[in-house]
Structures are given as structure tokens and as C-alpha cells.
């Protein structure tokens, strides 16, 4: 296996913010096509392509408080609805990849991971390893989890990719969202952080709030926190880029220099 | 946890044989409603509800020889297409269960099991155990698998339920298909085996051929072989019933006496 790159397509990038459960099919198809052509261009490249859920699972997760554990009479209904919504979006993404001739398969996190107080405590990654070995692209996604302590929780795509990056020793991580990178002055969007390192991390994190839209997993702050923890522990770098700009995802996957924020040790 | 019953809804029962990838929505909805009312009637009942794929995954599995391992230039495409088709039908089944107020979640076998020369060699069942513990119904299904030796394979719902039955110590298994039970004189359908035991097994298996329709996992013979192996090894009984007859699935789940074939030690 060559270089292993983990990619996340942000939920807000691939779903319509304004309309519930509306995938942005044109964007999904273009991104799938960029993934395809990156893989064509760099032989031996292995990708795990995760994606967020956007408005699909976040609404039921929010309504039933699924991320906070099994509380209330309808908590089990929440588990079912969140998983269903997340998985429906996943089918759309995987379907688009297949249409672009990418041999992609779903990896359903609620089937292969469990959490303990919200943190991934155990996972079965052998299917991902075997898929990469034969040249099939695993596509995990933000999902509900069964939790050893609190019954249920939510696992964000960032947590999943973080877990996979550590276990499978990824080379790097690319997060494609709808922002140019990490803004120091959000929401003014005039000053972007080119790099976040342990030296400027505390200052940068101070600028960050949660995501604007309904996002039960914490938005940009969560992304930067996880990426810095990964960089500190393993040296693996994360690049946050704007997937709305055609061609940028492809270039980032190929390791070319693109506009965005690099989070490194 | 009370009694654990494993149920399989046959692929031919829930999909249209004549038309590719056409779910029989009326049948799926009725079966979902029977599952719901069985669970309402018997408190403490735990169900794992598996289902076959019918015409959804069998066609690409057949076309690409997915069950025979990674062979040929397009084998990886086969893996992707089989998984996609199986998972799309699963979303329909889980969606119907949710609509009937069953708190059901998918369990994606290709994410949580791997095979070795086609036999399940390792599986992560903790999500299923935790789901049952909180009262959520796991719904696995016949799927593609990544295989340690031959690259890929197909895992039938029977193999999956057999594996789960042994590991989680199920009380019994119910297989609902489109036949009354196991015919001794198929296709004449005049003489049905009431019971199959180690005493008459060899004679009975002699009567059985593979399934009529495209079924890469071997049809009725495969079901009876797996059920007898399970009965011999563990004492767990399997009942094969006709799910096309309204009410029969519910009665069988509840352990009532219904027409069909019982496979026991």
C-alpha cells in the first residue's frame, strides 16, 4: 500500500443548509469526480473518504439529544432515526462515487465501532484494511454509536478519521468544507490562519466558535481541536480547505500546495 | 435481556422476482407491522431481524463472481456494486420498520465481519449486543465481505444469523420465505417435511436443490444445511415458515405453533 490519505467532505459542503435532507447533488458529483481523477493521477494512493451528515442526521440527533446518551422515553427512536438519516446520505455519496467509476464501499461506524462516554473505545478496522489492500475505497461517515456507558452517542467524522489515522498510520488528513480555511476573524472572513501550530494554537482556538448551522459535533472548533491533538500525538498533518472551489480537493489529495489552513506540530 | 430470537426475511419474500431491484413494499410493510406487534405482545423479547437481498445484490454478485473471490479486472467494481445494492434494500427494510414504530438499526456485515475463504472468520458483535441491551433491533443482511484469503466473498444472511446465534446464544431462529416449509417433492409441492432431525436429514437433503431464482448463496439447501449444523452444534432450533401468509411471521416469532418445517437436533 502506498500513501494513505484520509479525506473528509464536510456535511455543509454536500447538503443544502436551508432545506432539510437535501443533498447538493452537483457538488457531490463534482467532488466524486475530483476524487476519481486524483486516484487516476497518483498510482498507489490509498484513500479513506469520510463525510459529514449535514442536515440529515443533525436534526434528529438534536431533537432526541442522541449525542448525550440514552435519555427520555424516545431515545431509542432517536438512535434509529439518526442512523437512518446518516446512512441515507452515505448511500447518495457512495452512489455518486460509483457513478464516477470509483470502487467505493460504505463503512457504517455504528456497526463497527462502539463508544464509551462518547469517545470511540473499540473498533473493528480489518474490513477497512482489507478493502484498501484490494484497492477499494472505504467511505465512513458521522453516525450514531452504541455506547458502553451512556447507551448511545454521536461519532463525528473527525473522531472517526482521527481514530483511523492513528491505527492505520495515515500520511495526512484533508478536510474539505465551505470555508477557505480557519478564519481568525470569523464571521468577518478577512484574515485566515495559514498554519496552526502548537505555538499559535491557544490564540487561534480562542477565535473559534461552534458551527453556525445545526451541528451536534461542534463545527470548526471541534475540527481544529481534533487535528491539533492528532498532530501533537502522531505528527500527522491536517489541511482544511474549501471544497466549494472546483479542483481544490483534487489538488489537496495529491499533496499540491492549495489555499487553506495547515494544522501541524 | 429476555429471549433472543433471530429472524430472517427471505430475499424472494421481500423483492419482486420478475423485476430487478423492485422491493415488494406491501409485503415489507406488513412484515414490519407483524414484527412490531410481536414485540408489543411479548415484553422482554429481543429480536435480531436479518433479511436477504433478493434480486438487489444477486445480479451484480453473479455478474462479477463476487462470491468466488477477487478475480478479473472488474472484481473491485463488483464489491462496490454488491454492497451498494444490498445496502439500498436494507435502507428500505429499516425504513419500513421505523415507520411501524420499531426502533431498528442497520448492521452492515461488510463493516463488522471479515471472511476467510468465504467463511466468517472474525466479527465485531458488540454494537449488536449493546443495541439489544438498550432495546434497539439490529437488522443485518446478506452482503459482500472482504476476505483475508481470496479478497472478497458473499456472506449470506443464514451464515450471519448462524454466527450471531452461536456467539449471542440465541433461543431459536425463524426463517420466513415464500414456501410453506421444506418440500420433500419440490417442485410438486405436495409433501412437506414437518421436521428435519439428524435421523431424516440425509434423506431430506437429497430432495433439495438450489433456489430457482438467481441466488448466489444456494437457496433452500443452504438454509437446511446451516440450520442442521446449528442444531447439531448448539441445540438451537430453526423454523422455516411462509412469510407470505399474513400473521404467520408474528406467530412464529411469538413461539406459537405454525405451519412450516422445524429443524432440530
Layout: helices, strands, pairs:
2 copies of one chain form a homodimer.
Chain A: E1 4-9, H1 11-14, H2 25-41, E2 46-51, H3 55-64, H4 75-99, E3 104-106, H5 109-112, E4 113-116, E5 119-123, H6 126-134, E6 137-139, E7 143-147, E8 151-155, H7 157-168, E9 172-177, E10 182-183, E11 192-193, E12 195-196, H8 201-207, H9 219-234, E13 237-242, H10 248-253, E14 261-263
Parallel strand pairs in A: 1-2, 1-9, 3-6, 4-7, 9-13, 12-14
Antiparallel strand pairs in A: 4-5, 7-8, 10-11, 13-14
Helix pairs in contact in A: 2-4, 3-4, 7-9
Q: Can you put this structure into words, describing what you see?
A:
- The structure is a homodimer of 265-residue chains.
- With 265 residues, chain A is an alpha/beta fold.
- Chain A is 42% helix and 22% strand.
- Chain A has helices spanning 11-14, 25-41, 55-64, 75-99, 109-112, 126-134, 157-168, 201-207, 219-234, 248-253; strands at 4-9, 46-51, 104-106, 113-116, 119-123, 137-139, 143-147, 151-155, 172-177, 182-183, 192-193, 195-196, 237-242, 261-263.
- In chain A, the strands form 4 sheets. Chain A has a 6-stranded mixed sheet. In chain A, strands 5-4-7-8 form a 4-stranded mixed sheet.
- In chain A, strand 7 and strand 8 form a beta hairpin.
- In chain A, helix 3 (55-64) runs antiparallel to helix 4.
- The longest helix of chain A has 25 residues, at 75-99.
- The model of chain A has no long low-confidence stretch (mean pLDDT 94).
- At the A-B interface, helix 4, strand 3, helix 5, helix 6 and strand 7 of A face helix 4, strand 3, helix 5, helix 6 and strand 7 of B.
Amino acid at each position: 500500500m502506498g500513501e494513505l490519505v484520509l479525506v473528509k467532505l464536510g456535511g455543509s459542503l454536500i447538503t443544502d443548509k436551508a432545506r432539510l435532507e437535501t443533498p447538493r447533488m452537483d457538488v457531490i458529483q463534482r467532488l466524486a469526480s475530483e476524487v476519481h481523477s486524483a486516484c487516476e493521477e497518483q498510482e498507489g494512493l490509498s484513500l479513506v473518504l469520510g463525510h459529514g451528515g449535514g442536515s440529515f442526521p443533525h436534526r434528529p440527533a438534536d431533537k432526541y439529544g442522541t449525542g448525550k446518551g440514552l435519555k427520555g422515553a424516545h431515545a431509542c427512536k432517536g438512535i434509529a432515526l439518526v442512523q437512518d438519516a446518516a446512512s441515507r446520505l452515505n448511500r447518495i455519496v457512495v452512489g455518486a462515487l460509483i457513478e464516477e467509476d470509483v470502487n467505493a464501499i460504505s463503512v457504517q461506524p455504528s456497526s463497527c465501532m462502539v463508544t464509551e462516554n462518547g469517545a470511540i473505545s473499540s473498533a473493528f478496522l480489518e474490513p477497512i484494511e482489507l478493502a484498501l489492500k484490494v484497492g477499494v475505497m472505504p467511505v465512513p461517515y458521522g453516525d450514531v454509536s452504541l455506547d458502553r456507558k451512556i447507551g448511545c452517542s454521536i461519532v463525528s467524522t473527525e473522531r472517526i478519521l482521527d481514530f483511523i489515522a492513528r491505527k492505520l498510520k495515515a500520511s495526512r488528513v484533508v478536510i474539505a468544507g465551505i470555508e477557505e480555511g480557519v478564519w481568525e476573524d470569523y464571521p468577518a472572513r478577512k484574515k485566515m490562519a495559514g498554519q496552526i501550530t502548537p505555538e499559535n494554537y491557544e490564540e487561534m482556538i480562542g477565535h473559534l466558535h461552534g458551527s453556525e448551522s445545526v451541528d451536534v459535533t461542534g463545527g470548526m472548533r471541534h475540527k481544529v481541536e481534533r487535528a491539533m491533538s492528532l498532530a501533537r500525538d502522531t505528527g500527522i498533518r491536517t489541511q482544511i480547505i474549501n471544497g466549494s472551489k472546483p479542483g481544490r480537493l483534487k489538488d489537496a489529495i495529491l499533496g499540491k500546495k492549495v489555499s487553506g489552513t495547515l494544522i501541524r506540530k
